[in-house]
């Protein structure tokens, strides 16, 4: 296995946590761009996403190994959301979706 594949395994695990793990538990397969991270970051800015990653990183430092990894995978996901938000919000991006408030129930 190449060294780069070791990192790919970690990044893949973060994605799986979002789409099949904790993300699925909390958001039930809802489209990624319609999940709370998107409308909250539209309202509060990308600092919300970076803050969530920082919070998870800080909390992970006090956890046993199994929970340590789960928290850090969540932090990686929030950093990915920050990158995604920045890309989606670029002027002229046809994939931009503007959600300014939570979906009505």
Question: What keyword list fits this structure?
Answer:
about 100 residues, mainly alpha, 5 helices, about 0% strand
Describe the structure.
- The chain is mostly helical and 105 residues long.
- It has one domain.
- It contains five helices and no strands.
- The model has no long low-confidence stretch (mean pLDDT 86).
Radius of gyration: 15 Å
User: How far is the first residue's CA from the last residue's CA?
Assistant: 47 Å
Number of domains: 1
| Run of helices and strands | HHHHH
Mean pLDDT: 86
Strand content of the residues, in percent? Answer: under 5%
Number of separate helices? 5
Structural class label:
mainly alpha
State the total count of DSSP E strands. 0
Point out poorly predicted stretches. Answer: none
The geometry reads as globular
Set down the secondary structure blueprint:
Layout: H1 3-19, H2 22-27, H3 36-44, H4 47-60, H5 65-88
Helix pairs in contact: 1-5, 4-5
Summarize the structure.
The chain starts with a helix and ends in a 17-residue tail after the last helix. With 105 residues, it is mainly α. The chain has helices at 3-19, 22-27, 36-44, 47-60, 65-88.
């Amino acid at each position: 296995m190449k060294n780069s594949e070791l990192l790919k395994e970690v990044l893949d695990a973060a994605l799986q946590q979002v789409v099949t793990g904790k993300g699925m538990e909390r958001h039930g397969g809802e489209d990624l761009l319609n999940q709370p991270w998107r409308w909250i970051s539209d309202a509060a800015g990308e600092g919300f996403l970076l803050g969530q990653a920082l919070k998870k990183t800080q909390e992970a430092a006090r956890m046993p190994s199994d929970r340590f990894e789960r928290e850090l995978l969540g932090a990686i996901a929030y950093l990915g959301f920050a990158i995604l938000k920045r890309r989606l919000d670029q002027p002229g991006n046809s994939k931009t979706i503007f959600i300014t408030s939570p979906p009505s129930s």
